[in-house]
Amino acid sequence: MHLWHPGAVPTSPDDHRPALNQLQRRAIEVLATVAPDALALGERFREQGHELALVGGPVRDAFLGRTSNDLDFATSASPDQAEPLLAAWGDAHWDIGREFGTVGARRFAGRHGAASADVVVEVTTYRTDEYDPTSRKPVVAFGDTLEGDLSRRDFTVNAMALRVPDLVFVDPFDGLGDLARRVLRTPVDPRQSFDDDPLRMMRAARFVAQLGFRLDDDARAAIVDMAERITIVSAERVRDELTKLLLAEHPRAGLEVLVDTGLADHVLPELPALRLEIDEHHRHKDVYEHSLMVLEKAVALETGPDGAVPGPDLVLRLAALLHDVGKPRTRRFEEGGGVSFHHHEVVGAKMAAKRLKALRFDKQTVQDVARLTELHLRFHGYGEGEWTDSAVRRYVTDAGPLLERLHRLTRSDSTTRNQRKAQRLSRAYDDLEVRIARLREQEELASIRPDLDGTQIMAALGIGPGRVVGEAYRFLLELRLDRGPLGEDAARALLQEWWAARQADSGVSDDRPTGQPTD
């Protein structure tokens, strides 16, 4: 099967032909796996007089050697014309994106001699996207040519297409050359492109993180000049791009683009605020640089799919990035030349939660990132004085289901250049994890509860349901954390001592025998 039209690979002013040839070979191998489904769909469209082309990410990824069963197509057909063709081709179809010109379908694996996995396609009418200056939503206008559709895409590496069923490669803006050069460039003037859809500025940072490419100088300059325009885009769309960036292979590179271009000032201002002035005596380290290093170390500590923290893990990465956002607000210069950031973890937890809420992150993510931020300093001091078993229990209990993430965040936060100090901190945390494991075996730390439940408490004190039962439960939980498992008899005796003291302090006499309920 020939997947390339003769002469389809463009030449470049620089000699990138060896790299281009390698990219072409990769694409042929990848596209061969999706060609049967694409060809079948293309034949249906051509029979009805419509054009169809595979576009965007699937074409780019094919050159990078990445296979995807989610395929994006562009067509000259309207949604009304495309929908029945997709219904005949696939086993299921939908029109949720009809207002934006998009209809979709799924072909189940094996039912048509297709690939081993389901093939999902979305077909979009040739179009252009642009923003009304007063609106947060794009205005969709349909176009009439593939080249015109490609000219309105975000970057040249996403503005390549493969016409089906005749498999002609279309690359009017030398996207393949840019792919070989590993550069992100817009098909048209970047100011026009970013003005049409300001979210493309966020996508630029995201693709730097995902692909490891560099940003074209003109595109970078345009983002610097137009960064404030991102404020017209909805928080949800910004959040989605930021999430993709953070979950990418090179999140630091993408974040540096956000900060260096000024985009972060509008979407994540807490990050550039970490660039505290470095005084001549270096009384504190660069908190911005430190936070990026912590993120990189946390990413390296993520596990495989069967591990404790399968990567990429959004909560861990957000916590690593934001754990010190409270430092600018809490910085104090002390007498004698020192610098302090007292309670920055508490302040930072509130700041992180506020920002993530503004970006419309889900409630659980907000809570988890804030909690990790609040707890990230708890370990410090462990190596300077032996923690009691009670302190270890509280550490585990306070972390709850976030313990494995907290382990990784705390280890990543040790970025000192002092090798002795770094080794001491590492050994101390090794010791803490060993103690946690030992106590876990002995006491089931993950589910610490008092030795008596609510029913047993009421029987021991001779009371009925009410607020006092909760107070007694908390008393026993504190005992459990402080002393470990007590056993029911010992817990009951201590509970009754607490009850007697409480009654005496309140001046109430209670001679009722155990088991008699209160009025």
Describe this structure in words.
- By secondary structure, this protein is of the alpha+beta class.
- It has 4 domains: 1-181, Beta Polymerase, domain 2, CATH 3.30.460; 182-268, Orthogonal Bundle (Hydrophobic Seed Protein); 279-447, no CATH class; 454-505, no CATH class.
- Helices cover 51% and strands 10% of the residues.
- A hairpin with a 3-residue loop joins strand 8 and strand 9.
- The radius of gyration is 30 Å and the shape is elongated.
- Mean pLDDT is 85; it is low at 1-13, 279-283 and 509-519.
- Its cofactor is Mg(2+).
- Residues 287-409 form the HD domain.
- InterPro entries: HD/PDEase_dom (IPR003607), HD_domain (IPR006674), HDIG_dom (IPR006675), NT_sf (IPR043519), PolA_pol_head_dom (IPR002646), PolyA_RNA-bd (IPR032828), tRNA_adenylyltransferase (IPR014065), tRNA_CCA-adding_enzyme (IPR050124).
- Keywords: ATP-binding, Coiled coil, Magnesium, Metal-binding, Nucleotide-binding, Nucleotidyltransferase, RNA repair, RNA-binding, Transferase, tRNA processing.
Helix content range of the residues, please? 40-55%
CATH class membership of the largest domain: Alpha Beta
Q: How many independent structural domains?
A: 4
What's the average pLDDT? Answer: 85
The number of helices is 22
Looking at the structure, the CATH topology of the largest domain is Beta Polymerase, domain 2
Note the overall shape.
elongated
Strand content: 5-15%
**CATH homologous superfamily label of the largest domain:** Beta Polymerase, domain 2
Secondary-structure class:
alpha+beta
Coiled coil: 422-449
InterPro entries: HD/PDEase_dom, HD_domain, HDIG_dom, NT_sf, PolA_pol_head_dom, PolyA_RNA-bd, tRNA_adenylyltransferase, tRNA_CCA-adding_enzyme
Keywords: ATP-binding, Coiled coil, Magnesium, Metal-binding, Nucleotide-binding, Nucleotidyltransferase, RNA repair, RNA-binding, Transferase, tRNA processing
Domain HD: 287-409
